[in-house]
TrEMBL record:
<keyword id="KW-0812">Transmembrane</keyword>
<keyword id="KW-1003">Cell membrane</keyword>
<dbReference type="GO" id="GO:0016491">
    <property type="term" value="F:oxidoreductase activity"/>
</dbReference>
<dbReference type="GO" id="GO:0005886">
    <property type="term" value="C:plasma membrane"/>
</dbReference>
<feature type="transmembrane region" description="Helical">
    <location>
        <begin position="62"/>
        <end position="92"/>
    </location>
</feature>
<protein>
    <submittedName>
        <fullName>Oxidoreductase MhqP</fullName>
        <ecNumber>1.-.-.-</ecNumber>
    </submittedName>
</protein>
<keyword id="KW-1133">Transmembrane helix</keyword>
<dbReference type="InterPro" id="IPR032808">
    <property type="entry name" value="DoxX"/>
</dbReference>
<dbReference type="InterPro" id="IPR051907">
    <property type="entry name" value="DoxX-like_oxidoreductase"/>
</dbReference>
<dbReference type="Pfam" id="PF07681">
    <property type="entry name" value="DoxX"/>
</dbReference>
<keyword id="KW-0560">Oxidoreductase</keyword>
<comment type="similarity">
    <text>Belongs to the DoxX family.</text>
</comment>
<feature type="transmembrane region" description="Helical">
    <location>
        <begin position="6"/>
        <end position="27"/>
    </location>
</feature>
<feature type="transmembrane region" description="Helical">
    <location>
        <begin position="112"/>
        <end position="133"/>
    </location>
</feature>
<keyword id="KW-0472">Membrane</keyword>
Length: 140
């Protein structure tokens, strides 16, 4: 299992899934739920500067997720998204228990952002792998 091809394939799948999760959440904040509703949610959760934070979170998740998926600037993007998830865990998820399905206010518990943070840290540590734009640029 410690073969480069297996490691690179696992990183590709892992990056792709994690990236698509962030793209979906960014898309939701910006276009599906909308920035006005997202700002209202952020305001209710007492996130500082809720409108600015909603834009920053939505754009960072959408763009960062896309960059993760293709593997461009991967470690920087994963680190930035990990910091974003730490902020989300603190402002949104901390008071809602551990489990995502705790039945409390929307936003879920701490388990979801902790899993995302751990996944992003794995990408920071192990990089994007050879099956990525970063990998192609490193070989060129």
């Amino acid at each position: 299992m410690d073969k480069p091809v297996v490691r690179d394939a696992a990183l590709l799948i892992f990056r792709g899934v994690l990236g698509l999760v962030f793209v979906a959440h960014g898309w939701d904040k910006l276009f599906r739920t909308g920035i006005t509703e997202t700002t209202g949610q952020f305001s209710a959760w007492q996130v500082p500067q809720p409108k600015l934070s909603a834009y920053v979170a939505g754009i960072a998740e959408l763009l960062g997720g896309a960059l993760l998926t293709v593997g461009l600037l991967t470690t920087i993007v994963a680190g930035a998204l990990a910091l974003l998830m730490v902020a989300a865990a603190y402002f949104v998820h901390l008071d809602q228990g551990f489990f995502s399905d705790s039945g409390l206010v929307s936003g879920g518990g701490l388990e979801y952002p902790i899993v995302l943070i751990a996944g992003l840290l794995m990408i920071v540590v192990f990089g994007s792998g050879r099956a990525s734009v970063d990998g192609v640029l490193a070989r060129a």
